[in-house]
From TrEMBL:
Protein name in the entry: Transglutaminase
InterPro entries: Bac_transglu_N, Papain-like_cys_pep_sf, Transglutaminase-like
SUPFAM superfamilies: Cysteine proteinases
Superkingdom as given in the UniProt entry: Bacteria
Pfam hit, one: Bact_transglu_N
Domain Transglutaminase-like: 172-238
Lineage, broadest ranks: Bacteria, Pseudomonadati, Pseudomonadota, Alphaproteobacteria, Hyphomicrobiales
């Protein structure tokens, strides 16, 4: 499946403002399942772009501006080739096939921060919820994670939310309403409560012409590090495993580290009139 993705972010200001440096995480990550064929990034007003890799291995463009403006438009275009159909289940190393298991010292030295919870759980309610999904010990690792994935999806009703920020996992369980980023965080924190290393991913769901949640906007999911298979994607919005239709752009311990466009401006606190994000995915 070959897809074309246009991601446009527009900031409108009431009066001209001076733009500070902006961090742009918009270039899809290089990986075996999603092959990047073409990519372009345009910024208006004209900006100096400096490309580098951040600490998570994401392709980061730093934009600096020379002139004041009352409108900022950042547009990326990407053409990719995806498998289009689910592949076989990931093959795990024998020592990781059943849960619980221990990561090797070599792996742990790199992934330890990803196993540490990022959200408060003083009373242990989230930990108890996650551990309640463990059918027995030992239990197949992939089956446990698929059960967690389904439990996250069933814990809340999907609702698109345009407000910034991510809903805390305990609030998601209490309210029963979640956006894709809320589902992703609940899954990641559930996996971490089980002692597993998980990271958050922002990108796109490639389903041209589809109406599934996440097809007309940016999308978020989580990945769990499993020895032998590496980072395995789990999309809790749809309770699916694998990345055959997912286009990862940025990864991080928290979703705040994966924000597509972030920056500052010098002007009145109420200078920003509106921000509009448009995502188009076509075959």
């Amino acid at each position: 499946m070959r897809v074309h993705i246009v991601h446009r972010t527009t900031y409108d200001y009431h009066q001209p403002v001076a733009l500070g440096p902006h961090r742009l995480l918009l270039r899809p990550r290089a990986q075996s399942q999603a092959q990047l064929l073409d990519f372009s990034l345009t910024v208006s007003p004209e900006a100096n772009l400096f490309w580098e890799a951040d600490a998570n291995g994401n392709a980061l463009a730093l934009a600096t501006f020379r002139e004041e403006t009352d409108r900022l438009v950042v547009e990326s275009r990407a053409e990719l080739e995806l498998p289009g159909i689910p592949g076989p289940a990931p093959l795990l190393a024998p020592e990781a096939a059943t849960y619980p298991f221990l990561y090797s010292e070599a792996d742990w030295s790199h992934i330890a921060p990803l196993a540490a919870p990022a959200c408060p759980d003083a009373e242990g309610r989230l930990t108890a919820w996650a551990r309640g999904l463990v059918a027995g010990q030992p239990t197949p690792s992939l089956a446990l994670l698929q059960d967690l994935n389904a439990a996250v999806r069933d814990a809340a009703r999907y609702e698109e939310r345009i407000e910034p920020g991510v809903q805390p996992p305990l609030e998601t369980l209490q309210r029963g309403i979640a956006s894709c980023r809320d589902f992703a965080l609940l899954f990641a924190e559930g996996a971490r409560a089980l002692g597993l290393a998980a990271r958050l991913v922002s990108g796109y769901l490639a389903n041209p012409g589809g109406s599934a949640p996440g097809t007309a906007t940016t999308h978020a999911w989580a990945e769990v590090f499993l020895p032998g298979a590496g980072f395995v994607p789990f999309d809790s919005t749809h309770a699916t495993m694998g990345g055959h239709n997912l286009v990862p752009v940025a990864v991080g311990r928290t979703l705040e580290e994966t924000t597509p466009v972030s920056g500052s401006f010098l002007g009145r606190p109420d200078a920003l009139r509106q921000m509009i994000v448009d995502v188009e995915i076509t075959a």
